[in-house]
Amino acid sequence: MKKLTALLLIAAMLCGTFAGCGSKEEEAYVPTGDALLMEGQDPEEYLGREEEEQELVLAYNPDRSMNPLVGYSQNNRVLFSLIYQGLFTLNSSNEPTPILCSGYQVNASNTVWTFYLEENARFSDGSKVTVDDVIASYAAARESDYYKGRFAYYLSDIKPSSDGGVDFYLNVPFQDLPILLDVPIVKAEDVNADSPRGSGPYTFSSGLSGAHMAKVFNWWADLEIPARADTITLIPAGTDAQIRDEFEFGDVSLVIANPMSDSYADYRCDFELWEVDSGVFLYLGCNVMYSDYFEDGVLRQILTYAIDREKLIEKNYRGHAIASTLAVSPKSIYYNEALASKYAYDSMKFIDAISVWNVPNRNDPEAKLKLLVNSDDSARLRMARDIAQTLTEFGIPTGTLECSGSNYVDVLKANNWDIYLGQTRLPANYDLSEFFRIWGGLSWGGLPNETILGKCKDTLENNGVFYNLLELVANDGRIVPVAFGYHAVYAERGVFENLAPARDNVFYYSMGKTMDSIRIETVYE
């Protein structure tokens, strides 16, 4: 896309070169790349041309929910980032950015947070965003499979405050609650609607003639954002390969893909690419309560040394994942290289350890350690088979227990396995409590542990002790980290300016506020 300003600079440079009319300022000009022309193109044909109108076409899944509180579709969630806003959003570094929140204060124990709304915030129909809308949206989110995991343990209640804000009551002290408060706010009466009204810069419409998004011309925030088209055309998403073809032929402006999916297709056109944190965590979970292999704790503490993460990722995910020996992404500020290196692949260390370990049923030729895996995920299935083969070669006969769909969940709950290769989506603060609390959503195989859970709570109160939690989890070995995933965002080159995709928010933008600038210091009497 060629900008008028860039082309005028070309004209100025030509003038300066051939007519001797360049000044010192013109000679100091350094090209940015905006004005570069395709081979054979004449700069003169662009002179006087005004900035082109942005034409956007995005893919969506019409058979999946367009309600941001429950919808899982990656394609649809790209649209949500233009239709809805939360109290906060996350930037590409997983730091909270205030959006609908105009100010906040916290009590002395960090167990009650009060948030205040932007006075001018409006939904697309012109109605004001209220505290009731916030409470209703969070009530729905706490029941949603997409969001409830992050609130199941900490959040006890949400009520209107006495001074016009909304109070969040917590069961434990929480240092960085806003990092979890990117939940989209919809009108209270719309929480169960197929397509609720939002306060973002676009609205969604669908009918017999198809679907599209329209710019809200009286949008309350009145900001310049990466998407600036008056209308965004939406086309039904097909398979990953079909979406790739539509993108490569210029029929779609932007797509989001999961590189860990077996259906992930490489792109070969001219594009811009961003790798965005998804929170997807691939790990081995040990059956510490019901498996003979983990009665004495030896195997789970050395299992990390048997996992060649880099090799497994390259073979099964074509390198499209990030190996990690710690239960946090290597891209996170909490990751520690020195600590991580202590638990890296070391075949001799593993073999030496099991050589003196009393392997259960060592003399039974039919006995095998059972590695459970969801066979619906073909890449994960292949990885499980590779891990089983490696453990067998290292002296622990291992076979895979391959189950699909609801059968996989039933077997997981029945605890008729020794280890399982699992995948989950961790919240942005990498909270691990669901693994270690009783009846936690990820506590299969007797993982709950009061000591580790206590350290999880400590990190919520003070994230400066995250190192201690990661070390404790790695030494204990109840879960053995393997890798973290990311989303790949592809955009047609030159279509977007200042695009900075973030977790669950491809069209990230800032309101110009910071956490420090909106904090209200509380005076305690």
Q: Would you identify the CATH H-level superfamily of the largest domain?
A: Periplasmic binding protein-like II
Taking the sheet with the most strands, its summary is: 7 strands, mixed
How many alpha or pi helices?
16
CATH architecture of the largest domain: 3-Layer(aba) Sandwich
**Structural class designation:** alpha+beta
Determine the mean pLDDT: 89
- Rg, rounded, reads 26 Å
Q: Please name the CATH topology of the largest domain.
A: D-Maltodextrin-Binding Protein, domain 2
The number of E-state strands comes to 17
Portion of residues in beta strands equals 15-25%
Q: Helix fraction?
A: 25-40%
CATH class of the largest domain: Alpha Beta
Characterize the overall form: globular
Question: What is the first-to-last residue Cα distance?
Answer: 60 Å
Low-pLDDT stretches are: 1-50
Question: What kind of assembly state do the chains in view correspond to?
Answer: single chain
Describe the structure.
- This protein has about 525 residues and is of the alpha+beta class.
- It has three domains: about 5-45, no CATH class; about 55-255 and about 495-525, Periplasmic binding protein-like II (D-Maltodextrin-Binding Protein, domain 2), CATH 3.40.190; about 275-485, Dipeptide-binding Protein, Domain 3 (Dipeptide-binding Protein, domain 3, Roll).
- Helices cover about 25% and strands about 20% of the residues.
- Strands 11, 12, 13, 14, 15, 16 and 17 form a seven-stranded mixed sheet that branches. Strands 1-10-9-8 form a four-stranded mixed sheet, with helices on one face.
- A hairpin with a 5-residue loop joins strand 2 (about 90) and strand 3 (about 95-100).
- The longest helix is centred in the last third of the chain and has 16 residues, at about 380-395.
- The radius of gyration is 26 Å and the shape is globular.
